[in-house]
Write a structure and sequence with these properties.
The complex is a heterodimer of chains A (665) and B (226).
Chain A (H helix, E strand, L loop, with lengths): L2 H13 L11 E4 L10 E4 L7 H20 L10 H9 L4 H23 L6 H39 L3 E5 L5 E4 L1 H7 L3 H4 L4 H5 L16 E9 L5 E12 L5 E10 L1 H23 L4 E4 L2 H10 L9 H7 L2 E4 L1 H6 L5 H4 L13 H12 L4 E9 L5 E9 L10 E7 L1 H28 L1 H27 L4 H30 L7 E3 L1 H18 L3 E5 L7 E3 L1 H18 L9 E8 L3 E7 L27 H11 L4 E6 L3 E9 L3 H6 L1
Parallel strand pairs in A: 14-16
Antiparallel strand pairs in A: 1-2, 3-4, 3-7, 5-6, 6-7, 8-9, 8-12, 10-11, 11-12, 13-15, 16-17, 17-19, 18-19
Helix pairs in contact in A: 1-5, 2-3, 2-4, 3-4, 3-5, 4-5, 15-20, 16-17, 16-18, 18-19, 19-20
Chain B lengths: L8 E5 L3 H13 L3 E5 L2 H7 L6 E6 L7 H7 L9 E5 L4 H9 L4 E4 L4 H34 L2 H11 L4 H8 L3 H14 L5 H11 L11 H11 L1
Parallel strand pairs in B: 1-2, 1-3, 3-4, 4-5
Helix pairs in contact in B: 6-8, 6-9, 7-8
Chain lengths: 665, 226
């Protein structure tokens, strides 16, 4: 063995990194003496480290060579054979053993030479000894290098075994030479089943219809292939092929590594379809949707916003908050012809300045961590149309959520108009009901006015008569005049009360003082109640909070309830005709109860609040329904119930407004 | 105060103090005395004044209304002429009021003349009624002074019997009858027999047993009427 030969062995390992050799499961590479270079077979054998037999063999070889050296008188470099012992030890992968063997062999060579040729001159024997020592040295060094290369190789080989990808090596005749664990798992055939088989016959590879891809001059190919598993499944693989070169650099089979992408491909396909569906919905939706990049808001929220003012710089946001995507409905909403006109620009400039508050509210809500925000606002479309919109802003999940905030909008202009019209007709209906109510009291109201007028006339006439009398006159006339004045203002008061009730005006927000409201209402009903011999008992706590609302409408409710109570007691004996008005104060509401002593409510009290439901022959059935809508518009409730053994109770509540809120609205 | 000398007293019942006050002033300026009450109950408990009076009554009152009270007046033993007033009188109400004996029915607002005229009429009626009542009371007083026998004689004399017939009826002598008759004329302060007959009519003391024609003959037409 020459040092060159040792190097060639090492090179074989290096050139074929996939011929893996692991420390636990070392594979011994064995050249088949018959099969020439290309029919290399791999054999696997498990063995313990630093096998004692190997060491024994090495020692035996070394001693054998030493004996030959001493006992025979061969004139040749017998000591060169010590390298055999070194190579045997080299298989153990033990560096120190190799080194020790090298040193031992060198020592034996020297001993042999000293023993045989010490007394001789430095002749050919000395030269042979030096050649032998050099061979031993080179062999030792190469064995050590080979040893470290083998460690690296075994690392790489382990990685190959551990990888999920399949690694297959085929020769130029397409016979499988190597088959890793990944291949076993994926294709289903074990290593012993696969090695030596024809890969095409086994795997039925298909590459876009071609039987096998051309590796080309680069000697490499990457792409997707279809193969059949042991169980017959066709699977899709992402594969990389590399030409395997022989010692002369000529193509000699293929090394290929493949990964199953069937699942990934299916998932990707599903993702693509889902994406398509989403896009179709997005584009075809009848309502406006757009995706907008609000990253800037988040940044501005941190940096561009002073902590005290807590406002946003709308213009700065408008510069950078652009629309990433929008559908045609969104473009139409903004008065644009095509969605492409909207994409890439900001929607912020469409909002009139007074709507900045609404935008700020949305941004603040997003910043505070809300995922979905609903906000009403207004935009001025490109065609100048003012549109009321209801925005639904959604912050999606994920890292880049702020860069694709989803906004859906609903054009509520029509709805708002309809609501306005509804509110108007409701106000009109309320007014009609109020006038009807006044109509019910027309007689008593006329009486209320007539009384003072009558008194005025009588006082005036009386005054004139007093004037004619010479004595007595002055004080009597003065008295008459005083009464004329007081009765005049009394009549005027009644008229203004009635006019306030008959007034047709937009709902107002007044300060309502409850006791005063009760007094006024009872003053209006005074005659009516008197002539029906009804007494009114009011219970109220001494201090009542001020309420805010439309005073006239609340009075209307109270009047309606009291008139109902009065009518409910038509058949009650006069002595028992009492209306109790009880005011109580809760934490958030003031509640006012109107109780009568009538027959109570027949059937479900809720029916009373249905429009056109009436128990009276001449009733329209709108009174209570309107009362309820008035109270509810004020944020309260109106309920009816029967009080056991007494009569009906109508209870309505009104929220206690705090000062500031009341003044704002 | 005698019925003839007083100008009269107006009693006002109205729940509205201003109406009461204005009427009070008006009535006083016209020389009437005035009492005013807020309700009929107050008036009932005070009773009617002795002098010639008139009740000015509002129809619409809390509790009992004016018309109901008017219909109940006689039962209460209160005889007083009534002027009704109302804020809004309708015809049925007026009819009912007049039928119940109201002197007048005035809708508010009324003129002072209307009211004063109505009140004057009512006072006049009351004055008359009071006078009649006063005369009857005097006659009753005189009659109460008569002895039993004198009352018997008076009853038969005013029925138109001659002294002789009276004597025979009472089993008295004609002279005794003449003395009793003279006493009756003197005590009753009658100027003539006709005077005495009128007084007896007022007192309602005619002897019903004296009949010129048989009772059966008088009831004949009634029977034929059936």
């Amino acid at each position: 063995l020459t040092p060159e030969a040792g190097g060639a062995v090492a090179e074989t390992f290096l050139r074929n990194p996939s011929h893996s050799l692991g420390p636990e499961s070392d594979r011994v590479l064995r050249h088949d003496p018959v099969g020439e270079a290309e029919t290399t077979k791999y054999e696997y054998r498990y063995r313990a480290r630093a096998h004692p037999l190997t060491l024994g063999l090495a020692i035996a070889i070394a001693l054998g060579v030493f004996a030959c050296d001493l006992l025979t008188s061969l004139h040749g470099a017998v000591a060169v054979l010590y390298t055999t012992a070194i190579l045997v030890v080299a298989r153990t992968n033990e560096r120190r053993a190799v080194l020790a063997t090298g040193v031992l062999c060198a020592a034996l060579t020297l001993t042999g030479w000293i023993n045989m040729h010490w007394s001789e001159d430095l002749d050919s024997a000395a030269l042979r000894m030096v050649v032998s020592l050099t061979a031993i040295g080179i062999t030792t060094v190469l064995s050590l290098r080979n040893n470290s290369a083998r460690s690296t190789l075994s690392e790489q080989a382990r990685i190959l075994e551990l990888t999920h990808d399949t690694v297959i090596i085929r020769n130029s005749e397409d016979l499988i030479l190597y088959w890793n664990e990944g291949a076993e798992k994926l294709y289903g055939w074990s290593r012993s089943e696969a090695v030596g088989r024809n890969s095409q016959a086994l795997l039925k590879t298909e590459v876009e219809g071609v039987r096998r891809p051309d590796l080309g001059p680069s000697g490499a190919w990457a792409g997707e292939i279809l193969r059949t598993r042991k169980n017959g499944d066709r699977i899709l693989l992402a594969s990389r092929w590399l030409a395997r070169l022989d010692d002369r650099g000529a193509p000699n089979g293929v090394i290929e590594t493949s990964a199953d992408v069937t699942e990934a491909r299916l998932a990707a396909e599903e993702r693509r379809r889902s994406e398509e569906r989403y896009r179709a919905i997005f584009n075809a939706a009848g309502f406006p949707i757009w995706e907008t990049d609000l990253t800037v808001v988040r940044e501005k929220g941190r940096a561009g916003r002073s902590p005290t003012s807590r406002t946003y710089d709308t213009a700065a946001v408008a510069e950078r908050a652009f629309v990433r995507n929008a559908n045609d409905a969104a473009a139409a909403l903004f008065g644009l012809n095509d969605r492409s006109e909207l994409i890439g620009m900001s929607t912020v400039p469409f909002y009139p300045p007074d709507q900045a508050v609404a935008l700020h509210r949305i941004w603040a809500a997003l910043e505070s961590g809300q995922r979905t925000i609903e906000q009403e606002s207004q935009i001025v479309a490109a065609n100048g149309r003012l549109i009321d919109i209801l925005l639904q802003v959604t912050l999606p999940e994920g890292e880049d959520a702020w860069s694709r905030v989803l906004v859906m909008a609903l054009d509520i202009t029509e709805r708002n108009r309809a609501q306005l019209r509804l509110a108007q007709s409701q106000a009109e209906l309320t007014h009609v009901a109020r006038v009807t109510l006044l109509g019910q009291m027309a007689a008593s109201i006329a009486h209320e006015v007539n009384q003072p007028l009558s008194a005025i006339i009588t006082y005036a006439k009386s005054g004139r008569r007093w004037l004619k009398q010479e004595a007595a006159g002055a004080t009597e006339v003065e008295d008459c005049l005083d009464h004329i004045v007081s009765n005049g203002s009394r009549a005027a008061e009644v008229i203004s009360r009635v006019r306030a009730m008959a007034r047709k005006s937009e709902p107002q927000s007044d300060r309502i003082d409850v006791p005063n409201l009760l007094d006024e209402t009872i003053a209006l009903l005074h005659r009516n109640l008197n002539s029906h011999q009804i007494s009114v008992v009011i219970t109220a706590p001494p201090a009542l909070p001020t309420l805010f609302g439309d005073r006239v409408q609340i009075q209307q409710v109270l009047m309606n309830l009291m008139l109902n109570a009065e009518q409910a007691m038509a058949s009650t004996p006069p002595d028992d005709r009492v209306i109790c008005v009880e005011v109580s104060v809760g934490t958030k509401f003031v509640s006012i109860e109107v109780k009568d002593c009538g027959a109570g409510i027949e059937g479900d009290p809720e029916l009373l609040f249905r429009p056109f439901f009436t128990t009276k022959s001449d009733g329209m059935g709108m009174g209570l329904s309107i009362c309820r809508s008035i109270v509810e518009k004020h944020g309260g409730t109106l309920m009816a119930a029967n009080e056991e053994g007494r009569g009906a109770v109508f209870r309505f509540t009104l929220p206690i407004a705090n000062e500031v809120e009341g003044q704002v609205s | 105060v005698t019925p003839s000398s007083s100008p009269g007293r107006i009693v006002i019942v109205d729940d509205d103090p201003e109406i009461r006050g204005s009427l009070d002033s008006l009535m006083r300026s016209s020389g009437f005395a005035v009492s005013s009450y807020a309700s009929t109950a107050e008036f009932v408990s005070a009773g009617r004044p002795d002098e010639p009076s008139c009740l000015v009554l509002d129809v619409r009152l809390p509790g009992e209304n004016g018309l109901d009270f008017l219909e109940r007046l006689a039962d209460l033993g209160l005889s007083i002429p009534v002027v009704l007033m109302t804020g809004h009188g309708d015809i049925p109400m007026t009819v009912r009021g007049m039928r119940a004996g109201a002197v007048d029915f005035l809708p508010k607002p009324f003129t002072d003349d209307e009211m004063l005229e109505a009140v004057a009429t009512a006072i006049g009626r009351d004055r008359e009624a009071l006078t009649v009542a006063a005369v009857s009371a005097r006659l009753q007083e005189l009659y109460d002074d008569l002895t039993g026998r004198e009352r018997d004689v008076m009853g038969l004399v005013v029925a138109g019997l001659m002294n002789k017939q009276v004597a025979s009826r009472l089993s008295l002598s004609e002279i005794t009858v003449k003395i009793h008759r003279g006493n009756v004329m003197r005590k009753m302060e009658a100027q003539s027999l006709a005077d005495l007959v009128r007084m007896a009519e007022q007192l309602g003391i005619r002897d019903e047993s004296i009949r010129r024609f048989p009772a059966s003959a008088r009831s004949e037409p009634e029977r034929s009427g059936h």
